Amino acid sequence: MKYNFKTYCGLLFMVLFPLSIPFAITTQSASPEGSEARLISTVRYLSEEIGERSFRDLPKLNKTADHIESSLRSLGCLVSRQAFTYEGRTYYNVIGEVKGTHPGKKEILIIGAHYDTAVGTPGADDNASGVAGLLELARLTALDPAERTIRFVAFSLEEPPVFGTQDMGSYVYAKQVAQEGAKVYGMIALEMVGYFCEEKGCQSYPTGVGWLFPDKGNFISFVGNLSSRSFTREVKRSFATADDLAVETLNTFSSVTGVDFSDHRNFWKFGFDAFMVTDTAFNRNRSYHEPEDTWEKLDFKRMNQVITGLYRAMRSL
Questions:
Q1: SS3 for 188-237, per residue?
Q2: Residue 253 confidence (pLDDT)
Q3: Cα Rg for the chain, rounded, in angstroms?
Q4: pTM
């Protein structure tokens, strides 16, 4: 996650049609037994066994790409790699696809998460949590394919110093998708989905706007631009999770600083609807981009609720 979530919170008054309303649906979990354990296993492997996965750690990035590719292949996904270069070195996006069952639904859904980290951090929340969610969503989809084809894409190079440039892995991939003329229903970026807190005041906001929102970090957030408002709303309507997890949704101008702080930004550049799913980064998680961003600080029960809710939403689109 890039820099700062609080700016777009502070500029909520600029939203043309407010969507930041707490939302929850009470339901029984539909995820197969063991999902939470798999999320823990993936996050621990990436953040503990591999560790820092910054742009300068090419062997670790390659080891991570190999793990993601192997995992997707074991699920029965159609897997490919997209190679690209930055400063003379080769990096990889890893793509897994599960074909849809309905021949009439030609538009694909893209689920993405970056697997690199900021320098000096093991990146449990940012963004091993997103990668773990990506792999679990791919597993659930492969077990019972949706009507629509879904691509699961793990991006390299999202973090500084590459962020905001055309060297981001997600920019390279979005450009290729556009050049191929693929029809995209929408893109969802999983960007830090594992940190939650229940203490009063643990969720921070800019001065003067905190009264608009919960003072506890017990919600997940969907954030996108105005053009992606309908897509974001549709996913939110279909997002079914446990009754103690809410969704705060924001769609505003893409020029507002903070709304584009992840890989979804690059899909906007090619005319695709996209938003990110995020726990709001350092406005909640004080270990953001720090060596202390470790797996034991994450709430895997709620993380599993996020993934279960997204899976149900994906199937309904």
A1: EEEECCCCCCCCCCCCCCCCCCHHHCCCCCCEEEEEEEHHHHHHHHHHHH
A2: 81
A3: 18
A4: 0.89
